[in-house]
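Hello,

Following up on my earlier ticket. Below are the two sequence lines again, exactly as submitted.
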Amino acid sequence: DQQVKQNSPSLSVQEGRISILNCDYTNSMFDYFLWYKKYPAEGPTFLISISSIKDKNEDGRFTVFLNKSAKHLSLHIVPSQPGDSAVYFCAALSSGTYKYIFGTGTRLKVLA
Amino acid sequence: GAGVSQSPRYKVAKRGQDVALRCDPISGHVSLFWYQQALGQGPEFLTYFQNEAQLDKSGLPSDRFFAERPEGSVSTLKIQRTQQEDSAVYLCASSPQGPGSNQPQHFGDGTRLSIL
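Thanks for your patience. The regenerated structure is below:
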């Protein structure tokens, strides 16, 4: 029972173009969402988050969009850079709890 | 260093041996989490500590897995009588406050455990 799904295992994008990574969730109690980036042999590092009271949060080249009715969120990276090549995980949490649920990840490859 | 530190980075053990994995969270962080990450999967929750109290161990796969954080800082995950299916990366994460504060976790680089 996968409560957080990342249906695209991999994505390739040309340098300078937009990367869009998608994440779907099933539990309507989730109200805080995060994106993490992971390089090989390193732990995940926090990238950006969004609370369910918002539908968009932006931080430099990274923007997260939340569509609560569709239970869908996406991460946009513009412009994409080769250093963005990594595995991206989305995670979800119900406020007041501590159990973060992670998706299976999407491997992004940015081609120079 | 200022980050979460895990040791060893790599551990190879024979089936049936006991192993102990260590996590040094960021100083002062209240919350500490252990995750198991299988190849091609996302981190799966194992257990959660708030200071020295283990509030949730529902993710531990069997009673061969045991975690402790006796003084509310360093934590150890112990696996007894290891099996091949225990092979995975074990990640530790910490965050400054307890539940209800909606904050990102800081992860260590993990321990890659291989059971032969």
